[in-house]
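Input set for joint prediction.
Command: fold jointly, output tokens.
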Amino acid sequence: MPETADVVEQVVRQVLTSINGDLTPTETLLLGELEALSGEIARAKREISALSIGDIKDSHIPVATDELDAVLAHTAEATNEILDCCEKLESLAPSLPEAPSGIVNDAVTRIYEACSFQDITGQRIAKVVTALKAIEGRLMRVTDRFGHAAPPPAEPVAITPETEGRALANGPQMPANASSQAEIDSLLASFD
Amino acid sequence: MDKNTNILIVDDYKTMLRIIRNLLKQLDFNNVDEASDGAEALTKLRAGNFGLVISDWNMEPMTGLDLLKEVRADARLKNLPFIMVTAESKTENVVAAKQAGVSNYIVKPFNAETLKEKIEKVMVHA
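tokens >
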């Protein structure tokens, strides 16, 4: 199937070769617009072809995803270290007098709660990686259409069927859009 | 509330499994097993004798919502208390979970008190 740019160029050429006799002012104006459009498309094709899309595919995006994977690995490692320490503190608590034991247990609980950041950041980073890969795929398809040498990446293959659970799995929302526990409790109560 | 209840926690983040297990231990629940996705959880639930499921939503290959639907469709498991613990906080997620039969819903990040409160609530109704 011919691309839009090629079709427009073809139309301009056909109009030019089919001109017989004088043009009306409207036809002259239309022809001028078509020629300008054709020039713009040709310029855009040249600029897109000149982009170093290969660098984005071969270097920038893999480096970015590797860096994000490293962030995940480091935070997981650090979180597990923190949890190791908490478990040791927790095991010591029974040997302490009641008041300090309670303080240690409360502090450990708060650290456990805070450590769930690793799950949330992991899900957010996964969303960023997905977005980067989508950008890469679209860039490659655009450059391929304009005659760039590099072939477009293969479409992702769905290995599992879409379910309602997967369709609604969007990961953490931005704080401004996220429902609080109180709002969720209220929503659940409205079903009773 | 029976502290000897067998609890299955389901999450694809090992850190989260560890955190929930430790918080449950603080609440004196020591019979805790783990699964890293819905499919593994379903196998364990069908083979075992659990009194409560605490599951994440966003997992592959089987999500928490799909696990919940399987549980509710299983004659032996259909009344099993099921708490969703997830970062999915959109109204449509909560509604879908409720319609699928979720017993309660906790949004991440959560605190120990919320976990305790929701467990007490679903265990009373179990």
